[in-house]
């Protein structure tokens, strides 16, 4: 059982939880995720670690209400406990001094991007964060991102905040004004697909953190399989980050939609 220390409502459907997990807090690195379960017969949900406080022995999770299980987690309050929490899982983000790194995040993708932006900045990179959302209310964790990014470019579909347009417009504007050495993208699969197509055109190395369906998180069930460079990979143990230009996003999106009617 992992106790919830703090709960914040980021938007109507997005909740931030600080959860007691001292061992995970000490071991986690940027890019790692955990599997959480609420209730004895609850569904196992993969969530990327948005931050950790070693002194407090806690990790931060950001959850968007999408189906029954995520709503169940979001309904928990301070003092309640998550039944099971396993991690850190997956491979950590490869961090080095690349030069200029564009962190392209959409919606709740900003949460897992935070530790990556922080690590990239500490490694000496110039970090530019392009944060996209449908509306102003869905732009989350901007102030937290400002602590690590040299520049933030907010984008909204409806123009209610920042620049009106898709995330690709913001990224391309950066590419046209300065040299970009690496792009990291996290968000909806369709968003990552078009970010990848854009950066491929400009020959900019790009890493995508994939958010596939996942069950056990240790490579045994095969539910999270994706095709990368023509080969089958498992997001939970081979990822969650891959060369975006090698990912078959169309296949991934088809698999993601398999259980939409049950959510």
The CA-CA distance between the termini, in Å, is 26 Å
Task: Compute the CA-based radius of gyration.
Answer: 17 Å
Helical content band: 25-40%
What is the structural class?
alpha/beta
Q: What is the strand content? A: 25-35%
How would you write the strand order of the largest sheet?
A: 12-11-10-9-13-14-17
Q: Describe the main β-sheet briefly.
A: 7 strands, mixed
User: What's the total number of strands?
Assistant: 17
Order of helices and strands: EEHEEEEHEEEHEHEEHEHEEEHEH
Low-confidence stretches: none
> In the CATH hierarchy, what is the architecture of the largest domain at level 2?
3-Layer(aba) Sandwich
Number of helices: 8
CATH class membership of the largest domain? Alpha Beta
Determine the mean pLDDT.
Answer: 91
């Amino acid at each position: 059982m992992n106790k919830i220390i703090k709960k914040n409502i980021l938007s109507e459907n997005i909740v931030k939880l600080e959860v007691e997990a001292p061992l995970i807090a000490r071991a986690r690195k940027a890019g790692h995720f955990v599997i959480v379960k609420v209730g004895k017969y609850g569904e196992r949900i993969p969530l990327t670690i948005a931050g950790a406080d070693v002194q407090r022995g806690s990790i931060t999770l950001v959850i968007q209400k999408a189906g029954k299980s995520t709503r169940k987690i979001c309904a928990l309050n301070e003092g309640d406990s998550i039944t099971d929490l396993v991690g850190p899982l997956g491979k950590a983000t490869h961090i080095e001094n690349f030069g200029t790194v564009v962190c392209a995040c959409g919606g709740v993708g900003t949460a897992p991007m935070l530790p990556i932006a922080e690590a990239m900045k500490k490694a000496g990179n110039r970090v530019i964060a392009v944060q996209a959302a449908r509306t102003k209310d869905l732009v989350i964790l901007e102030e937290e991102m400002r602590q690590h990014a040299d520049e933030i470019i907010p984008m909204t579909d409806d123009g209610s905040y920042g620049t009106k347009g898709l995330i690709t417009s913001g990224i391309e504007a950066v590419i046209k004004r300065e040299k970009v050495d690496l792009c990291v993208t996290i968000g909806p699969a369709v968003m990552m697909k078009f970010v990848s197509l854009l950066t491929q055109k400009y020959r900019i190395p790009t890493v995508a953190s994939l958010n596939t369906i996942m069950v056990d998180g240790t490579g045994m069930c095969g539910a999270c399989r994706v095709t990368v460079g023509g080969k089958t990979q498992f997001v939970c143990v081979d990822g969650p980050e891959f060369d975006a230009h090698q990912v078959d996003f169309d296949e991934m999106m088809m698999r993601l939609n398999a259980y939409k009617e049950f959510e």
